[in-house]
Amino acid sequence: MSAAEVDGGIRFALDGASKRYGNVVALQPIELTFEAGSTTALIGSSGSGKSTVLRLLLGLERSDSGCVRVDGHALQPADVLALRRRVGYVIQDGGLFPHLTALGNLGLLPQHLGWEPQRIRERAQALAQLTRLPPDALARYPAELSGGQRQRVALMRALMVDPDALLLDEPLGALDPIVRHELQGQLQRLFGELGKTVIVVTHDLAEAAWFAPRLVLLRRGAVVQDGSYADLRDRPADDFVRQFVQAQRTLPAAP
Amino acid sequence: MTGMPARLAIVLLACVLPVRALAQPVRIGSKQFTESVILGEIARLAARDAGVQAVHERELGGTRILWKALQQGDIDAYPEYTGTLTQELLHGVAADADIATLRARLKPLGIGITDSLGFDNTYAIGMRQDEATRLGIRRISDLRAHPSLRFGFSNEFMDRGDGWPGLRRAYALPQTKVSGLDHALSYRAVASGAVDAIDLYSTDAEIPYYHLRTLIDDQHYFPRYQAVFLYRLALERDEPAFVAALRHLADRIYEQAMRAMNAAVKLDGRRDSVVAADFLGTRIEAGRRGLWQRLRQRSVEHVELVAISLGLALALAIPLGIVAARRRRLGQLVIAATGVLQTVPSLAMFVFMIPLLGIGTWPAVAALFLYSLLPIVRNTHAGLVGIAPELMESAAALGLPQRVRLRRIELPLAMRSILAGIKTAAVINVGTATLAALIGAGGYGQPILTGIRLDSIPLILEGAIPAAVLALLVQGLFELVERWLTPRGLRLQPRQ
């Protein structure tokens, strides 16, 4: 990657933002800041509100109270489209559109922004190299790709227009262990190289610790602990954190 | 996949293009029975011989349809009976009103009436000649002496006030064995001796064929049904030669002649135009159209009906389906409304269109258009609503504006469902369009109608077979269009 891509990123903040769906509280009023260029992992069990944080930051949902701040400014509905173009978003199954080839998926936003086909192709090839996607996979449809390849294409799509931030929601959740392990390594390297604001949601503590120096543990829509892996392990805020850390299985010792 | 909207546009255009201009000669209508068609044909040929360009919109339907069409100017003239005018169409007119009285009553409606053409086609009671002779029955009042006789009356005659109930009272008839029959079947019933007396129309071709005696209405119970032509009074100014030709037909067609013509068409299977031309001592146009020419013309008419109505339906139903998918409440309403349209029986739908749009191609197109809406709206809605939520979210998160998402992502993903809806609408339309002949729009329904009237299976097949073939062709064509328009990526089985 060129040096030009190493830039400041976006500073996100949740300022008393909360969200409920009917009677279910997804997120209690929360104060949380993501510094520009930092990498953070949101962890917690399912239903803890970690995905809701990402959805609020992208404007996919509006908070019931408080606000979302982007570089200090409260996010307005009119700004949402522009914000989304500065943010890459990757979900569990990739969210690739089955009617388009990998390249077609990658080209959706660039095409709308008026990029020449040649430029799209070159950018796609560069990203294929970065994510180690076989170049001939670009011409294939999602149904013709393996799970790992699909996830790589989804990541590439998020990176196409060189966004300032990357939000990933269980990006490796649907992959088998070997591919997952391989991609974990690549992602960690990428996060370090890109210099973007990265927020990754996972329920796997080991993966979170591997990706990010800062872990935010959520439970029932509230932050339980915000710190490094060492903090969580050595100075758990309460019994839940202790249990959560202990619940991560290690391999049994060899007999 | 950039070509998708362009391809869709091509399909749409191909549907809408063959709109044709309609010429405006004098239009003569006829009702759905043989005598009316023959009279219509006589009027057309008489007009032609008088140098007036005229077309015959044959077998448009029943009395009400013709009467409405005449008042609205969709047709310029049609054959009618004075009894129908006094009993059904005009109110507060004596049953025995003469033609001068009727003329005065029709004038404010802008309708003119010729003098009697020369024959009556009234209700009558008929018996087998040998049986009547044996029992000594010549007049209706003679029936009183034979209470055990069995009567078989057409269903309409059973119910009408001026039918059986009135007849029984007027003549104090004692018979109790009275059953309702279809008129076409009642002749066979009386001929075989299953019933002894039936109602009939005095010019029915079957009367001499089955050797029936028409009983004398000695108490003058039945009103007179003198045959006349009704025409729009405006024609006296615009087409005086036509009105003169119509008037010239008055007092020229006698009962014997009319009955013979009915028999020639109905029993001998001769063409009505030939029979009409023979009567006038003129000739029909050279070059009788062969089967293939008829087929070609009807195919053009039929395909036009289906294509235009489908094209218009696409232009409205797809946007409606999109709106329905976007707004849940409104969507329910739209789908319910188009669903209600679908439940209107097709015959009723065609008839409803007449007061709004008259007769011919356009009301038929409108009716078919309404029928096409539901399958397309519903499938468009279902296709869009059925897109996986994570794909919708991915699309939103990309930062594309809504209309771009719709065009590049949502519509292609819903394409299969939308195309299936269009296919359903098209195939149903091919079938329903056969009813369009009832309101003068032509197509494959025309020979079916005539075939039913003349009890001719070959004629019915001449319409039914092409209609079935067309339905299969449309089905096949849409399979191809589906292959062409469905994105390849959607036809693949996902790899695990």
UniProtKB/TrEMBL annotation, chain A:
The keyword Ribonucleoprotein does not apply. Residues 12-245 form the ABC transporter domain. The keyword Transmembrane does not apply. Pfam families: ABC_tran (PF00005). SMART domains: AAA (SM00382). GO terms for molecular function: ATP binding; ATP hydrolysis activity. InterPro entries: AAA+_ATPase (IPR003593), ABC_transporter-like_ATP-bd (IPR003439), P-loop_NTPase (IPR027417). Keywords: ATP-binding, Nucleotide-binding, Transport. Transmembrane segments: none annotated. It comes from the Bacteria. PANTHER family: OSMOPROTECTANT IMPORT ATP-BINDING PROTEIN OSMV. Belongs to the ABC transporter superfamily. This is ABC transporter ATP-binding protein. It comes from Rhodanobacter lindaniclasticus.
TrEMBL record, chain B:
The chain crosses the membrane at residues 305-325, 346-374, 413-439, 459-481. One of its GO terms (biological process) is glycine betaine transport. This is Amino acid ABC transporter permease. One of its GO terms (molecular function) is transmembrane transporter activity. PANTHER family: GLYCINE BETAINE/L-PROLINE TRANSPORT SYSTEM PERMEASE PROTEIN PROW, OSMOPROTECTANT IMPORT PERMEASE PROTEIN OSMW. InterPro entries: ABC_Gly_betaine_transp_sub-bd, ABC_transp_perm/SBD, MetI-like, MetI-like_sf, PBP2_ProX-like. It is a multi-pass membrane protein. Pfam families: BPD_transp_1, OpuAC. In the N-terminal section; belongs to the binding-protein-dependent transport system permease family. Belongs to the binding-protein-dependent transport system permease family. The lineage of its organism: Bacteria, Pseudomonadati, Pseudomonadota, Gammaproteobacteria, Lysobacterales. GO terms for cellular component: ATP-binding cassette (ABC) transporter complex. Its main location: membrane. It is found in: Cell membrane. Keywords: Membrane, Transmembrane, Transmembrane helix, Transport. Residues 299-482 form the ABC transmembrane type-1 domain.
